[in-house]
Amino acid sequence: MSNVFFYEPFYDLDRFIETLSGATQAQKGAARQQSSGEGVVRSYRPRLDLHENAEKNLVTASFEFPGVPKERIEIDVHNGKLTVSADIKQSVDIDEGGYAIRERRFGKYSRTLQLPQGVQDDEIKASMDNGVLTITFPRTTPDLAPKRVSIA
């Protein structure tokens, strides 16, 4: 069976360009806030590791959500797509003017994966440990797995 997951090359390219440009997160955050206005929620993608195990017929997706409690993370399945998201609020009890460096990101984090055809909701399992959300689901369903036909 072919791989149903799609690599997002532009996500890595954007991070690479940001690294080369030498702009700090604080500078980029200030520029974004100035250009987009106050109160605009930015959307970020949590980092992802995806592992397929053909022998166990299992896909494991691990998402980074450092410092986010599991109660703030939402996992939705709709039309064969699994979406993981969290809305991380900026701390309001710290004075804005006192920052020398501000690299932590706040806003909406979201990532969507295409599920293999036929995966049922009850086959998807999720757990969280030390800021890493791990989701597992079958790589293929028995009904849709390729079948070998022998020649008579």
TrEMBL record:
SUPFAM superfamilies reported in the protein's UniProt record: HSP20-like chaperones
SHSP domain boundaries: 39-152
UniProt-listed Gene3D superfamilies: 2.60.40.790
Entry-linked InterPro entries: A-crystallin/Hsp20_dom (IPR002068), HSP20-like_chaperone (IPR008978), Small_HSP (IPR031107)
Keywords: Stress response
Alphabetical list of Pfam families matching this protein: HSP20
Protein name (record): SHSP domain-containing protein
